[in-house]
Automatic annotation (TrEMBL):
It comes from the Eukaryota. One of its GO terms (molecular function) is RNA binding. PANTHER family: PENTATRICOPEPTIDE REPEAT-CONTAINING PROTEIN. This is Pentatricopeptide repeat-containing protein.
Length: 635
């Protein structure tokens, strides 16, 4: 067919015309760099006019050239219009005309017209060629009718690579990966030649469905089928490696990209930045980021996301400011990655900056996740009135909005306000989830609202349809423990359908120490020791309880446990905002450049605590005091 067309076009080009005919064909069909669609359209029209002068209007083979020119150059509307005129004049389409018309229907997503063409093919006496059948399958796939396409596909007496590609791509575009994988396996069994596109589609499907190992196995098989890895393959592989901890393989893919000149491709470079970031190798990620001369929005987002993943708020803020100065405007992904970080680390200063940015740029008004992050940030920073203001200004709210504010009120000990919000949430028809119930019961616990918290817990399954989890039972232990109802806390633990976590035993143990219940405290301590937790804080808690009870032998046993298990008390650090950023400070650390200011502030806080009547407990084993030394001092 292509030979016939070329011969016809070349024969026409022998006409002594002022226009170079081969040049028109080349420009119209093959030139993908034309800057003006109007010029391209006029050239095609000139070509058609000249063909008509040479061959007449009735040759359907010539008409098929017209359709291919229209559809290949993006003028699908023109192709369909010419087809309608052709049918109106009684010119019968042939097996070369139909595929081009069907292609135009697919490009325009014109399912109705595509069905008309399908009916026309059925009504004609044409023998269905593989070319026509592939065009029909492709048209239905592009119009979203994959079931119709699959029906036609299964009826085909023979299939080629194009047939399989169309169906697999169709299922992939709809996210129907199970069907795509099934066809891929059938294609493999049929010994068809694979191209890199199919490999990439299936490997990408594995990545999207969470089969990261399967994606990497497919990539390793590509080479055995003599297919060359391209930039898309590398992006898929680099995306899969961090998911299953294969850092070495990720670096090997980086090496392959460098050797084959793919590391400069922007999508590959962005994926490399993301891959190194997820493995916490932020130094390499930053080097790659700096090596990228023309940074796209995705490049900036990748670097910012890397820093936010590991709670590096200062670096993330620096990159964000640099991004703005370079003239690149952030999008929803940028803000959505960085703002929750400020909520997690309660970085009020930077959070306020983003609040102002969101207020000035109205394009972010409808992104609920961003405003929820603001509410969460203000709540965790203790600025509950600011959180309430943001909450009130929101045009839409969901369970996350309410949960963040409820948790904020709970942390401030304002349980009644948290309960009112919870009631408002129910009135608005917003169903609470597992996290909401943790927040509201915790709010009751911090405010001493025992009966209200108990009622909410009992209604979880019967009224809200939420099955209590370990964290909900932990909240109830804390609720009863804070109120001194230690027998009820004990009863919750013994009746819960889950194995108590170390945190639950530690909660009960802390309550027993506060309320002086040695009996239940020793029971909780024994249970906690049986679990041999790695958290050194639990052992300090047990030691404090034994010290308060004067059980020196058991206190020594705790020390032995820690030594045998290799557990060491990790030094505590505080991150203090010194204006220009956050500065880490540990107990007794005088090497800090801001030590003088920090200790001056701490001394002031200690004086305020003393003036308020706070008296430190004298029965605690301090973290930095050796247990044997403490026992000897007591004896």
């Amino acid at each position: 067919m292509h030979y016939w067309k070329s011969k016809l076009l070349l024969s026409v080009s022998q006409d002594q015309s002022p226009v170079s005919f081969p040049l028109i064909v080349h420009s119209s069909v093959h030139n993908g760099t034309s800057s003006c669609s109007v010029q391209k359209l006029s050239r095609i029209r000139l070509l058609i006019a000249m063909l008509k002068c040479q061959t007449g209007n009735s040759d359907s083979n010539v008409n098929s050239i017209f359709y291919e020119l229209w559809s290949r150059n993006g003028f699908c509307g023109e192709a369909l219009s010419v087809y309608k005129q052709m049918v109106y004049k009684g010119i019968r389409p042939d097996e070369f005309t139909y595929p081009s018309v069907l292609k135009a229907c697919g490009e325009r997503f014109d399912l109705g017209f595509g069905r008309e063409v399908h009916r026309s093919i059925d009504a004609s006496c044409l023998q269905w060629s593989l070319f026509v059948q592939n065009a029909l399958v492709s048209m239905y796939v592009k119009c979203g009718e994959v079931d119709v396409a699959r029906n036609l596909f299964e009826k085909m007496s023979e299939r080629d690579v194009v047939s399989w590609n169309s169906m697999i791509c169709g299922y992939a575009s709809k996210g129907m990966w199970e069907e795509a994988f099934e066809l891929f396996e059938r294609m493999r069994m049929g010994n068809f030649a694979f191209n890199i596109v199919i490999w990439n589609i299936i490997a990408g499907g594995c990545l999207q469905t969470g089969d990261y190992k399967g994606a990497l196995e497919l990539i390793s098989q590509i080479r055995s089928y003599a297919a060359h890895l391209d930039s898309v393959t590398l992006v898929i592989g680099l995306g899969a490696c961090p998911r299953i901890g294969l850092f070495k393989l990720g670096k090997e893919l980086h090496g392959f990209a460098v050797r084959n000149g793919c590391d400069g491709v922007q999508t590959v470079r962005n994926s490399l930045i993301t891959m190194y970031s997820r493995f916490k190798d932020l130094r390499h990620a930053y080097v790659l980021f700096r090596m990228t001369e023309a940074k796209s929005l995705v490049t900036w987002n990748s670097m910012i996301a890397g820093y936010t993943l590991w709670d590096r708020s200062e670096e993330a803020s620096f990159i964000f400011r640099e991004m703005l100065l370079s003239g690149v405007e952030p999008n929803y992904v940028t803000i959505a990655s960085i703002l929750p970080l400020y909520a997690r680390v309660a970085n009020l200063q930077h959070g306020k900056e983003f609040h102002c940015y969101l207020t000035r740029h109205r394009g972010f008004k409808d992104y609920l996740l961003l405003w929820n992050a603001l509410v969460d940030m203000y709540s965790k920073s203790g600025k509950i009135s600011e959180a309430q203001r943001v909450f009130d200004s929101m045009t839409a709210r969901d369970e996350v909005s309410y949960t963040s504010l409820i948790a904020g009120y709970g942390m401030q000990g304002e349980g009644q306000s948290a309960l009112k919000l919870f009631e408002e949430m129910n009135r608005c028809g917003i169903k609470p989830d597992q996290i909401t119930m943790v927040a509201v019961i915790s709010a009751c616990s911090h405010s001493g609202l025992v009966s209200q918290g108990q009622v909410l817990f009992e209604k979880m399954l019967t009224f809200y349809g939420i099955t209590p989890r370990v964290e909900h039972f932990a909240c109830m232990v804390d609720l009863f423990g804070r109120a001194g109802l230690l027998r009820k806390a004990e009863e919750i633990i013994t009746r819960m359908p889950y194995r108590p976590s170390p945190a639950i035993w530690a909660t009960l143990l802390g309550a027993c120490r506060i309320h002086g219940n040695t009996e239940i405290g020793e029971w909780a301590a024994e249970k906690l020791l049986e679990m041999r937790p790695e958290n050194s804080g639990y052992y300090v808690l047990i030691a404090n309880m034994y010290a308060a009870a004067g059980c020196w032998s058991k206190l020594a046993m705790v020390r032995t446990f820690m030594r045998d298990l290799g557990v060491r008390k990790a030094p505590g650090y505080a991150w203090i905002d010194v204006g220009s950023g956050f500065c880490p400070c540990s107990v007794g650390d005088r090497s800090n450049p801001h030590a003088e200011e920090i200790y001056l502030l701490l001394d002031g806080l200690a004086k305020l605590m003393k003036d308020a009547g706070y008296v430190p407990s004298e029965d605690l084993v301090l973290a930095d005091v050796d247990f044997e030394e403490y026992i000897e001092q007591e004896n």
